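re: the backbone from monday

yeah here it is again, tokenized this time
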């Protein structure tokens, strides 16, 4: 049973009455203990999908199973296993940190006086602020309170909706340390982001979503390898105004106002085409003073995918 996904989404879509389709039919399995990044621009459908799984939005079609419980027909049991850190800083301003987090824990039927809450608040650097009213806290501290609230009932599945939006560097670092500790304890983490580097650094698998459609889901390393184009940039001695016809079979492009000749090749292919390309350049008398290769980032892959599907 250990290989059963903790979250199974089948045919889930959302169309608003007299409005647009916010989410086209999504099929997705999330494995226990993984960190999964749902990557997409603003308005892509990331928050809609999370809101459906967390019971905030009712889907138009489809089914959701959380740890074996039907999220639509057995909502309470499914929701107990889920923690959500929303984008918005919506916390009870006049309550203290400790009271707010304790209340969230009790909502799910767990005891209020708990060593776990102290450990959690210490992990999030909130223990010294436990008696402070939330209205007195900085934006970064309020974000920490939201994370503490989401984790108060010890969920197995944690959603982080745009966790780095408006967050300072110190909190981001603390948050990722906490995410790794949680994963070590067996918590499954799903984060939505439009920060490419966040997905690239943290996730085991990446899903790319745009305009309500899940375009691709893959292991991050496999995704990088599969789409692993590399660029060879040649800094020319003399700038060019046009690509010579003799080089067209390699399809290079001119960059940097004609000072750079760029050749894109497949790093995973048997032949890169670089030796023949450089040989041809030499034959044509095209001199260069510098040469640099770089691999495409997840950002390049993401932009390429989104443009391809338009």
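seq for it, each position gets an aa:
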């Amino acid at each position: 049973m250990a290989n059963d996904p903790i979250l199974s989404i089948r045919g889930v879509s959302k169309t608003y009455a007299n409005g647009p389709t916010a989410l086209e039919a999504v099929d997705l399995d999330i494995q226990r203990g993984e960190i999964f990044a749902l990557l997409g621009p603003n308005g892509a459908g990331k928050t809609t999908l999370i809101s459906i799984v967390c019971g905030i939005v009712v889907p138009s079609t489809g089914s959701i199973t959380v740890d074996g419980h039907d999220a639509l027909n057995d909502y309470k049991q499914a929701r107990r296993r889920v923690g959500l850190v929303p984008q918005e800083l919506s916390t009870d301003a006049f309550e203290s940190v400790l009271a707010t987090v304790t209340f969230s824990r009790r909502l799910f039927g767990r005891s209020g006086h708990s060593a776990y809450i102290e450990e959690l608040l210490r992990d999030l650097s909130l223990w010294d602020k436990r008696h402070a009213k939330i209205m007195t806290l900085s934006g970064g501290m309020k974000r920490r309170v939201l994370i503490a609230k989401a984790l108060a009932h010890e969920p197995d599945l944690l959603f982080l909706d745009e966790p780095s939006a408006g967050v300072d560097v110190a909190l981001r670092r603390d948050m990722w340390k906490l995410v790794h500790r949680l994963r070590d304890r067996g918590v499954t983490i799903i984060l939505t982001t439009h920060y490419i580097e966040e997905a690239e650094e943290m996730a085991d698998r990446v899903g790319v979503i745009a305009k309500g459609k899940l375009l691709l889901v893959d292991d991050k390393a496999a995704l990088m390898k599969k789409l692993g184009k590399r660029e060879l940039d040649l800094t020319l001695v003399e700038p060019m105004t046009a690509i010579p016809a003799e080089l067209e079979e390699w399809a290079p492009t001119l960059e940097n106002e004609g000072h750079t000749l760029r050749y894109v090749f497949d790093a995973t292919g048997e032949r890169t085409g670089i030796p023949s390309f450089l040989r041809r350049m030499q034959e044509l008398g095209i001199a260069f003073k510098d040469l640099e290769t770089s691999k495409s980032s997840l950002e390049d892959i993401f932009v390429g995918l989104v443009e391809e599907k338009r």
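The domain at 228-308 is CATH 3.30.70 (Alpha-Beta Plaits). The chain has two domains: 7-224, 228-308.
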